[in-house]
Amino acid sequence: MRLRRRRHALSRSATVLALMVATSISAVGAGVLGTTPASASSTTGVTAKQITIGATVPLTGPAASGYSEIAPAMDAVFNWVNAHGGVYGRKIKYIYLDDEYNPAKTATLTRQLVLQDHIFADVGSLGTPTQLSVQKYLNSQKIPQLFIESGCNCWSNKRYPYSFGWEPPYTVEGKLLGNYVKQHFAGKKVGFLYQDTTFGQDVMKGAKLEIPKSSVVSEQNYNVTTLAGPLTTQMSALKAAGAQVVVMGTIPAATALAMLPAFAIGYTPQYVIDSVGADAPTVGPLLAAFTAAGGGSAATAKATAGLLNGVITDAYLPPEGLGSNPWVVVTKKLLAKYAPTVWKKDGLNGNTEYGVALAYTFVQALKAAGKNLTRAGLMKALEKKGHSLTTAGLVPLSYSASVHYGYEGGEVVEFSSSAPPVVTPTGRWPGDKVLTPVEVTTPGSGPVRKYKGRISVPPAFVKRSD
Amino acid sequence: MGLFLNTVLNGVSEGMVFAAIALGLVLVNRATGIVNFSQGAMGMMTTFVAYSLLSGGIGYWPAFVVALAAGFFLGAAVELIFIRPLQGKSPLNPVIVTIGLLVVLEGIAGSIWGVTSRGFPPAFSQRGLRIGSTRVAFSTFDLFIVAAVIVLMAVMIAVFRWTDVGLRMRGAAFSPEVARLLGVRVGRMFTLGWALAATAGALAGLLAAPISSFGPYYMDLNLVYGFTAAVLGGLLSPVGALVGGLVTGLCISLVGGYLGGNLEPLGALALLLAVLMARPQGLFGSAKARRI
Fold first, then answer.
1. Beta partners for residue A194, in sequence order
2. Does domain B2-278 have CATH number 1.10.3470?
3. What ipTM was estimated for this complex?
4. How far is A301 from chain B (nearest CA, A)?
5. Does the beta carbon of A226 lie under 8 angstroms from any beta carbon of chain B?
6. B256: which chain A residues are within 8 Å (Cβ-Cβ)?
7. For B181-191, how does the pLDDT look when each residue is reduced to its tens digit (9 = 90+)?
C-alpha cells in the first residue's frame, strides 16, 4: 500500500510537470497561430465524443460491504447509453477510484481525478466524511460534485453551489419513520439505536421531530469505527428500558449486529429502521448465516432469518421486492445486459438499484443541460429543470436555486411475506408491503405531507433498454 | 439488574475472545521476543479457510480442525520466510514486517473472498441461555468460547512450565546464544513458537467470527483489544493475557452499557493508561531492572 501510494505521488508530480509544459506550449501555439479552440473543447473533460466523469468510492475496506456494488452498477447505465450513441454524441467515461472510505485518500484521489484524469464532474462519490473533505476543493475549482451518495443535511449549502445531494436527507427519512411511529404506535414505549455520526444523528433528529419526547424511554448508540462485535449492551439496555418500538439509524452490518443479540436474549421489539440499515439483501444473509450451519439448529436459522419479517423502513426508490414495478423491471434488464458481472454476483439489491437510478439521473441531467455542455450550464439545468427530470425516485428531485437536496420524500414500507421468509446468501428476501402513501417533507420542522404529484414511470425508450 | 447481568456476561464472552488473541501475542513474544501485529490477520486467513470448507459443505468440526492446522503451518511459514531473515537486526524490523504482513494478508483475503462482510456459523447455538423466565446474553456458544480459551491457556502454561520443549522455547527466546551452546536448535524453537501462536490465532479467529461481521477486516479491532489485554497482562504471562482479556472485555461492555456505546474505545484506552501508569510492567509482568 505504501509503495502504491508513492507511485501515485510520483506519477502525479510527473503529470503536473507535463501539464505545465503542455500549457506553456499550447499557449505559445495559440499565440503564434492565433487560433484558440472553440467552445466545445473549452470545458475540461468534455470533447465532441466523450464526457469524462469520476468518483471515489469504497471498493475495499470495512465500508466496502455492499457499497462497492454501486459504481459498477452505474456503469450498466453508462454502457447502455454508450451503446446507443451516448448523450448528444458523447460517450460517458466513468472512472471510479477506491478511497476505502478514508477521507485522507478521498482528498488525494479526488485531486488525481481532477488534475490527471481531467474529469468534467465528480459523480456518485460515496460517504459523508469523505465527500466533506473535498467539498471545498471541488467547489473552489468549480467542478460539479454531483449526486453525492450520502443523505447528510450538509449538501445543500449556499457556500458550495456546485454540490448536489441525491438521496433524501437522513432527517427527512427520520421524519417519515417518526411520523409513522407517532401515528401507528401511539402510547408505546420507543427506544433509539443510532450510529454516533452525522448519519445516525440526523436520522434521530428527524425521528425526534415527530415522536413525542414522553414516549422515548432509551437512547443507545454505537461507534462505527469500532463496530466489531454484537451490540449486546445496547440491546440489553433497550430491553431493560422496556422499549417496544426501536427506531434505528444504523448501517446494514450494525442492523444485523443489533438484531442478533436481541434475538438471543429473547427481545423482539418492533424494528423501525432507516433505509440505509434496512437493506434486506445485505442484512438477511448476515442474519441467516449466523445460525444456518454449525451448531445452530435449523429452527433457529429460520427464526433469525425471519427477524427481518415485519421490519418497518422507508423507501424513496421503488422497493426492489416489487417485481412488477416498471423501474424494477428496467433496472433488472439493464443490469443483466450491460453489467453482467454485477448482475451475476449481486443481482438486484438496494445498492445496485441505487447505482442504476443515480446514473440514470445523471444521464437525464446531461440531456437537460443541452448540446453545449459546460459545468455552469449543467448547474443551471439542475436548478431550473431538476425537479422535472424523469428519475426512478418516488417523488421528483427537489432541486432549485436554494435547495440542493435530492428526493425529499418516500414511503414507509414493511418487509413482509405470507409464506415463510426466505433469506439466503444469494439474496432472496421477504416481499415488501407498502404501508403509507408517498409522502414529502423538508429536513426542517415542516410537516410530513401526502405527495400529490404523479409517480414517475420509465420513458418508453428506457423500458426497451435493449 | 437485567442490564447489569447482560452487560457483565457480554463482557466475559467478548473478553475471552480478546484473551485468545492476547494468548497468541504472548506466545510469540515469549518464544521469539517479537510482538506480532499480524496475529489477527493470520487468524482471519485461517478462518476464511474454514469458511471455504463450510461453504463447500464440509461439516463444522472438520473445518475447525483444518483451520487450526492451517494456522500451525501458516505460523511456521511466516516465521521461516519473513521473520528468520530479520534475526539479529534492529528490533524495529519485525514490527514493520508484521504490520506489512497484516496489510498484505487482508489484501489477499479481500481479493480471494471479497471484502463484503458475511455471517460465520458458530459451533453451538447463539440463543441466550434461559435463567428462570428470561433469556440472558450468554449462550452455549459463549460457554464454548470461555471453555476453549481456558483450555488454550492451560495448555500453554503446561507446555511452557512442564515440558522439555517449553523449556527450550523459553531458553531460546531468553538467550539464543546460550541456548544454542546448550544444544537447543533455536531456529526450530522460533518456528515452533510461531506455529503454536498462529494456531492460537486461528482459534481466536474461529471464536470471534460468529460474533462479528466476518470479512477481511473483522480481526482488526479484536487485535487492538487483544493487544490491550496482552499489555495489561504484561505481554509474557498466559494468566495475565486471560485476566487482561477479561478486564478489557468487562470494561468495554460496562462502558458501553452505562456510558454509551460510542465511548467503548475510550474506556479501553483509559483502562490501558491507568494500568500502565500504576504498573508499567502490566498486571502480571515482573519489573525489569533498568540500566541508567
1. A221, A249
2. yes
3. 0.78
4. 10
5. yes
6. 233-234
7. 988 888 899 99
